[in-house]
């Protein structure tokens, strides 16, 4: 999942694809996952969940609207994003269906090892493995390793143990929302009214997707 998803999406942005277009493409994962899980994994989704998936995707479109620029979307960048989308979707469904109880540390070690084997030769061939060390690069690496790879993917695996694939992957709508919050906190970028509206719509869509109809708390009958 690391090699395909992160490699594909980062390569797409390296080739000029805007962050907004990349985020919008990857945010199609919950919708694709829902169709596959409904068709092949016998997951039953009520109409409210289907609506929630559509609402969440629309909300993401509003959140990243100001970053959408299709002028630099070339064939290579588009291919990279679609590979990333296919990789994270297939990886999520495989994990949910065949190894939901895999050890999280072992899974992380395998992910890192496989990614190194796949990406290192590509970096050598296409970029000469040149590294220009800078404080910003080190901070980025630490953030990606700790939050994106270790904590993020481990949280995904943990949730897949206890929930349906569609409900879990609907939370993939939330990273662009967190990105807006982090931009505001770290760089002082005040989100527009459109982005704030998109955040509200996105959160509503996620809530509609993960909500279980007919659920009662343990104390509701008392």
User: What's the total number of strands?
Assistant: 0
Shape: globular
H/I helix tally: 10
Uncertain segments are 215-222
How many domains? Answer: 1
> What structural category arises from helix and sheet content?
mainly alpha
- Mind describing the biggest β-sheet? none
Distance between the termini: 46 Å
Percent helix, as a range, is over 70%
What is the string of helix and strand elements? Answer: HHHHHHHHHH
Percentage beta strand: under 5%
The Cα radius of gyration reads 18 Å
**What's the overall average pLDDT, rounded?**
85
Structure description:
- By secondary structure, the protein is mainly α.
- It has one domain.
- Helix content is 73%, strand content 0%.
- The chain has helices spanning 2-14, 19-26, 29-40, 47-63, 75-98, 104-127, 135-162, 165-169, 174-187, 193-210.
- Helix 4 runs antiparallel to helix 10 and helix 6 crosses helix 7.
- The chain starts with a helix and ends in a 12-residue tail after the last helix.
- Mean pLDDT is 85; it is low at 215-222.
Key features of this structure:
single chain, 222 residues, mainly alpha, disordered C terminus
Could you write a compact summary of the structure shown?
This protein is mostly helical and 222 residues long. The protein has helices spanning 2-14, 19-26, 29-40, 47-63, 75-98, 104-127, 135-162, 165-169, 174-187, 193-210.
Record the SSE blueprint:
Blueprint: H1 2-14, H2 19-26, H3 29-40, H4 47-63, H5 75-98, H6 104-127, H7 135-162, H8 165-169, H9 174-187, H10 193-210
